[in-house]
From TrEMBL:
Transmembrane segments: none annotated. This is Probable arginine--tRNA ligase, cytoplasmic. It comes from the Eukaryota. Belongs to the class-I aminoacyl-tRNA synthetase family. GO terms for biological process: arginyl-tRNA aminoacylation. GO terms for molecular function: arginine-tRNA ligase activity; ATP binding. PROSITE patterns: AA_TRNA_LIGASE_I (PS00178). NCBIfam families: argS. Keywords: Aminoacyl-tRNA synthetase, ATP-binding, Cytoplasm, Ligase, Nucleotide-binding, Protein biosynthesis. It comes from Drosophila hydei (Fruit fly). GO terms for cellular component: aminoacyl-tRNA synthetase multienzyme complex; cytosol. The gene is LOC111598231.
Length: 593
């Protein structure tokens, strides 16, 4: 059925939009406004809010009609719908919509049979530029945020059936390579034949910088190496590759630990394309001389800050590479949606790039969507920039290690090391450590800064990964104790039905059914905290349900005397929804913890 993967709000919008058009043909362009109501409200589950607005519109045309009467007119035009149980018009003119239980049972049953089906969206090719650390520089917490948020956005969009290209726009090109290459030549003269054992690239960077600042001959040679590198001289390219490889390995370790998939396409990839984009802009007459450099204004008003396309020494800049990159993404990748997951500090840059790309005709506003998915800072517990105790920037690998220690400590405090097998313990440890780091990041509105604190992250009350993971394992253990065989769900569903008679069963069902609307909401503005809030709500409502509704009844000596299979199915539906959300948020569901 075609309407099956519409979210509930979309479904209702469709029904109400045509009802409005039927009731008032002169308003056939009005779209229904549907809002979800708190699941505990006695005044319905969803609400249509159009009557008030229509009443005002009529008044302008000299027709006086009360919102309530308009609501009644609309209500009369609502056809029999499988999703609606009943409608009630409030005195103010709201139409309160009560969801049909039959529909809810059917939806949940389908979900148990087929898994969560993606809501219907217009499929696009989306390029997500995320993580994007710089070679030879520390991958810092800002890149951690970009990595975590970017990965989740990719997972969300992939689930929505978009064609997603994941790009690591590595900072692997630029003048700093001149001094790194010159230093490499001195430290490892044999680098052409064997790969140099650079242990600590940050140290290496610092040493070369020191020489660059103090030794004029070295400096000259470093400048020259920038030129030989850009010209593609074999030796310089080789040296550059060695240096990049060292960083690449470090980055990959972080990606592996965090379960991140990304394809490298660094700034160097655009070297020849930068030459081309410069020509492209020049031919269009968009380059202007300014103090020895060539600039481009983002728009015709020539206000704000111009892009520097060619520096006075003839070199290219970050602006040039992003102009080349956006052109490549549109014209060769054929992306219609480009997403940049980069900290808020770069918003001026991206605004300028987007405007300039429109101005020169690379982007067409009718076809392309571009988003700078910006995010705030990670702060230390003192509310200041996140640093180690000694004041250094925090190494990401160290941070992940620390998370592992904290999570092990917590599991030990709960005596889990006594119950779980060593493998299960490690699995739980990783799920908690990486899960809490990711979830803390994703559960805050990304625009704001947040304070990094393992103690807060590992709290098992409130909206934390630990609370969600524990709730999930609880559901798994209920399922295990029920004796039902969930590997054969079809058979269970043939024998038992979901029932939604108890108030708390019904509340849980309605909560689960919001999933599609939440996913659509997340994709609209690329905000994942809505999905986190939803997970938390599911867990809270599940706990309420479980407190009030027995699923498995035991006698005093702990023997099972009866199993309520219909409720076990509801538990399983909750698990299915949570697993889907966990996947998008990068949390690993563990069945024992
Ligand atoms: N390497 C840059 C940084 O660390 C981020 C690159 C973001 N992507 C882009 N297309 N500019 O600040």
């Amino acid at each position: 059925h075609n309407d099956d993967n519409l979210s509930i709000t979309e479904h209702l919008e469709k029904v109400f939009t045509s009802a409005i058009a039927n009731a008032y043909p002169c308003f056939c362009n009005v779209r229904a406004i549907i809002a979800a109501v708190n699941v505990s409200s006695p005044f319905g589950d969803y609400q249509c809010n159009n009557a008030m607005g229509l009443s005002k519109k009529m008044k302008i045309e000299g027709i006086i009609k009360a919102a309530r009467d308009i609501a009644v007119d609309i209500q009369k035009c609502i056809p029999e719908s499988p999703i609606i149980e009943k409608l009630e018009v409030s005195s103010a003119g709201f139409i309160n919509i009560f969801l049909s239980k039959k529909f809810a049972v059917r939806s949940l049953t389908n979900m148990l049979r087929d898994g969560v089906r993606p809501p219907r969206v217009l499929k696009q090719r989306v390029l997500v530029d995320f993580s994007s650390p710089n070679i030879a520089k520390q991958m810092h917490v800002g890149h951690l945020r970009s990595t975590i948020i970017g990965e989740s956005i990719c997972r969300l969009l992939e689930f929505l059936q978009h064609d997603v290209i994941r790009i690591n726009h590595l900072g692997d090109w630029g003048t700093q390579f001149g001094m790194l290459i010159a230093h490499l030549e001195d430290c490892f003269p044999n680098f052409i034949n064997e790969s140099p054992p650079i242990g600590d690239l940050q140290e290496f960077y610092k040493e070369s910088k020191k020489r660059f600042d103090s030794d004029d001959n070295f400096k000259k040679r470093a400048y020259n190496r920038v030129v030989t590198l850009q010209k593609g001289k074999t030796e310089s390219i080789k040296a550059w590759q060695h240096i990049c490889d060292v960083s690449r390995k470090e980055f990959q370790q972080i990606y592996d630990r965090l379960d991140v998939t990304i394809h490298e396409r660094g700034e160097s990839f655009y070297q020849s394309r930068m030459l081309k984009v410069v020509e492209f802009l020049r031919v269009k007459g968009l380059l202007e001389f300014d103090d020895g450099r060539e600039i481009m204004w983002p728009d015709d008003s020539k206000s704000g800050i111009p892009l520097t396309i060619i520096k006075s020494d003839g070199g290219f800049t970050y602006d040039t590479s992003d102009m080349a990159a956006i052109r490549h993404r549109v014209e060769e990748d054929l992306a219609t949606w480009i997403i940049y997951v980069v900290d808020s500090g770069q918003s001026t840059h991206f605004n300028a790039i987007f405007k300039a790309a429109k101005r020169c005709g690379i982007l067409n506003s009718n076809v392309h969507r571009v988003d700078h998915v910006q995010f705030g800072l990670v702060l230390g517990e003192d509310g200041k920039k996140f640093k180690t105790r000694s004041g250094d920037t925090v190494k990401l690998a160290d941070l992940l290690d620390e998370g592992m220690k904290y999570s092990l400590k917590q599991l030990q405090e709960r005596g889990r090391d006594q119950i779980l097998t060593p493998e299960e313990l490690v699995e739980a440890q990783e799920a908690v450590a990486y899960g809490c780091i990711k979830y803390t990041d994703l559960s805050h509105n990304r625009i704001s800064d947040y304070i990094f604190s393992f103690d807060k992250m590992l709290d098992d009350r409130g909206n934390t990964a630990v609370y969600l993971l524990y709730t999930y394992t609880r559901i798994c253990s209920i399922a295990r104790n029920s004796g039902d065989d969930f590997s054969n769900l079809g058979a269970i569903l043939d024998t038992y039905n979901i029932k939604l008679d108890h108030k708390k069963e019904w509340k849980l069902a309605k909560t689960l059914l919001k999933l599609h609307d939440v996913l659509i909401q997340c994709a609209r503005g690329l905000f994942l905290h809505y999905l986190c809030e939803f997970c938390y709500e599911v867990c809270v409502v599940f706990t309420e349900f479980y407190d009030d509704c027995y699923c498995i009844e035991k006698n005093k000596s702990g023997q099972i005397i009866s199993v309520n299979h219909s409720r076990i199915l509801l538990c399983e539906a909750t698990a299915v929804v949570l697993r889907k959300c966990f996947h998008i948020l990068g949390l690993k569901p563990v069945s024992k913890m």
